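step: validate -> pass
step: tokenize input -> pass
step: predict -> running
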Amino acid sequence: MISRVGVGVIGFGTVGTGVARILLENAALIRRRVGVPIELVRIADLDVTRDRGVNLPPGILVNDAKLVLADPGVDIVVELIGGYDFAKRIIVEAIEAGKHVVTANKALLALHGEELFAAAARKGVDLGFEASVGGGIPVIRALTEGLAANAIQSIYGIINGTSNYILSRMTNEGHGFAETLAEAQRAGYAEADPTFDVAGTDSAHKLAVLANLAFGTPINFKELYTEGITHITQHDIAYAQEFGFAIKLLGIAKMVEGEIEARVHPTMLPSDSPLAKIQGVYNAIQLIGDAVGDVVLFGRGAGDMAAGSAVVSDIISSARNLLKGGAGRVPPASFQQDQRRPLRMRPMEEIHSLYYLRFMVLDRPGVLAQIAGALGRCGISISSMLQKGRRAGQTVPIVIKTHTAQERAVQTALREIDRMAFMSEPTTLIRIEGQDE
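step: predict -> pass
step: emit ->
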């Protein structure tokens, strides 16, 4: 009979500290939920001297990950070091040793998830990764269990707190991107090198994980269209508001005619929609199932305690399975491994969307007619237009919102328009999610 469940943590940074604090401070509560104690047996980190503000029992903190993997008292290995090669080796070794694994490593799952899912299924162990997307938001469990009766039709996610903070501040304070990014770095909401966040890469990693679970198919991360927020200006935010929209960096995944659309880019959303109202560093994910309809999950997307909460929820789930002999009960990738199907990832040029187009042009006669002509030749219909002020011979904006059009056609038209002599800079394009008028 199992009298306790041992946990070994590899990586004692921000999330690892949160995990340790929760396991220690909520030990009595967790014991009541599980039935036996969950004991923190080992923590491995290269830095064993820095004070993390957590009082660990003597002998727990070591500087060698192998001591965690080899400890017979460790039933569940928690990987929190991030990165690819070393983290992957740790997870594979733990699985091969018959230990259950919990990770928050969305980048590793996005690139090597198929191998890890197959390994866990083969060994009959749990692989939990609730903290990989949305911090403390239980979106992974929603997809694998809560919404398991549904064919998921689409996913819309604000899944990067840094970008959402920047866009929120730009909208509410009227500052430019560079100024707002510097403010986010001073406040600790953006890294010294924020590229992964503002270029959309972090969101793309997370979307790859969500789409994999939702549609039961391998997602090739390299095929996932990714665009960041660095080109968004106050002009675009103001025009979006005039059209009744807000701009968010959105991860979008859809099942369309048996194929997968998966993309990350700035998106205009109707200002009264749930995701448009998400402010600051918060995350939100809207899931649409054929039976349940819309489900929106909202909460803190990062931080030691939010992510730590998600990691410990996976630890508790695995501990319960150990006690009841139900390890591997829920397939890591939501679908049974032999029931997953390869589906075509629809190329970006084949998607259909509404579009916001901002042209910076020299103010002279015939400009609008030439722009409209180029759009018309590509089969693109104009829904509405804004043109403010006249400054003959100077640069002015022309803003157009289109009806539904194909990406290929829009890009073809913009290549023609951007070569025209009156264009002072390349066209700004932002896709719109909403109903065509």
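step: describe -> Residues 82 and 105 are 5 Å apart (CA to CA).
step: cleanup -> pass
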